[in-house]
Amino acid sequence: MPASSAESHLSGLGVIRALERRLAEHYGMRYALAMPSATTGLLALGLALDLQGALFVTTPLTWGGSLAPWLMLGGTPLFSDVDPDTLTLDPALIGIEQQSGARAILAVDLFGQPCDDEALRKVADDMGAWLIVDGAQSFGARREGRASGIHAHAVVLSFTAGKPLDVGEGGAVLTNDRDIYERLIWHSQHPTRQKLELGLRVTNEFAINGRMAPTIAERILTEIPTALSRVRVRQRTVSRLLVEESGLDVPNLGLVEPSWFRVTARLVAGQRVTGETLHPFPLLPLPLNENLSLRSGGATGSWAVASREAERRIEISLDDRLLDRALSTDSHTTRHQGGVPA
Ligand SMILES: Cc1ncc(COP(=O)(O)O)c(C=O)c1O
After folding, report:
1. 172 pocket-lining for ligand 1 (C-beta < 6 Å)
2. Is residue 39 within 8 Å of 69, Cβ to Cβ?
3. How many Cα neighbours within 13 Å face the side chain of 296?
4. What is the pTM (predicted TM-score) of this model?
5. Which of 7, 109, 245, 284 sits at a 20 to 30 Å CA gap from 120?
6. Ligand 1 centre distance from Cα of residue 139 (Å)
7. Cβ partners under 8 Å of residue 287, min gap 6
8. Least confident among 97-106, 160-169, 285-294
9. pLDDT digit string, tens, across residues 215-261
10. What secondary structure does DSSP assign to 208-219, as a single string?
11. Are 59 and 51 in contact (CB under 8 A)?
12. Which residues of 277-298 are buried (b: 16+ CB within 10 A; e: fewer)?
């Protein structure tokens, strides 16, 4: 790598800064920090918010990677139940007394369904806790016309394999809070960047390496328009093919605009789906409380809705070839109309 490029890599200038600006603009948030993965982003947030050993409220329905960084910091999850349609944390079920002592709420946009970040933020504020949204699966999703997760203290993204924007590996953290941003830099960025942005003489050489490689940043910048178009195509495919034509009960259509990272449906009595429609590698997880119980001998909280929904849903495959065809038609149509893909 040429010296100037190495320099901008460590200082967060050049293409890193360009990507961070683009992500901040997309989310309408003040600060974005490019990271090597969502895992690093969550770990850096755990350090920045002093969550070592903290109790945190979270959803039993997610990929274990949501919790891994804070478990590593000695944190304890307290599971709270989900909304049966979106499968994301139900704000109404997080009672203040029940959750007293929790220092953070970790909500997850499961399968790209935006959680109710606005209501969750009110609960977090009442509890005096942080709200962090794990948006690893929801790039491109919207709620009430705006990007998913923006009411949180911070949103974490992933650009790893299979995600709505997939460049192999990559992540980001977004926040509106200057103090959180500065703390993230202190805990996860190179001293060159710490000096540049924080104006410090004494820097933190013990920070973790939370830098994104510039080659990855460049690819993400290039891929953003295609990824967003693809999400719009998935949304149309789900509503047209799966719901209108196949009559599947895919909950929550219309209320929010998910990225549809994964699509699940509830089968009604007598309904069948063909083998081709079923996803070959269903991801619908066991509620994590069961997993965690196996690991550490116990989990606390409530998860009745999560267990019921995990039991009764099936995962639907969105045929990639179909999506690619629809995508090429979509960009053709949009060009023809003189517009810019959403
Ligand atoms: C919900 C969720 N959270 C966190 C992660 C971790 O993301 P990464 O692989 O970028 O660290 C993933 C994906 O793997 C995920 O799906």
Report:
1. no
2. yes
3. 11
4. 0.90
5. 284
6. 12
7. 60, 61, 79, 303, 306, 307, 310
8. 285-294
9. 999 999 999 999 999 999 888 888 777 777 777 777 766 668 999 99
10. ---PPPHHHHHH
11. no
12. beeeeeebbebbbeebeeeeee
Nearest atom, ligand 1, residue 158 CA: 10
Tell me the CATH architecture of domain 222-336. Alpha-Beta Complex (3.90)
Report whether residue 264 contacts ligand 1, using a CB cutoff of 6 Å: no
State if residue 136 touches ligand 1 by the CB under 6 angstroms criterion. Answer: yes
User: How far is residue 159's CA from residue 141's CA, in Å, rounded to a whole number?
Assistant: 14
Among candidates 94, 147, 88, which has minimal Cα distance to 122? 94
Hey, whose CA ends up nearest to atom 7 of ligand 1?
Answer: 38
CA triple 339-319-286, angle to 5 deg: 115
Torsion of CA 71, 73, 79, 83, to 10 degrees: -90
pLDDT at residue 205 above 70? yes
Q: 156-194: per-residue pLDDT in tens?
A: 999 999 899 999 999 999 999 999 999 999 999 999 999
Q: Which CATH class is domain 3-220?
A: alpha beta
- Judge whether residue 329 has pLDDT over 60: no
Residue 283 pLDDT:
61
Instruction: From 67, 66, 58, 108, select the one nearest 88 (Cα to Cα).
Output: 108
pLDDT digits (tens, 9 = 90+) for 14-41: 999 999 999 999 999 999 999 999 999 9
- CB count in 10 Å sphere of residue 339: 9
Can you give the residue ranges of every domain in the chain? 3-220, 222-336
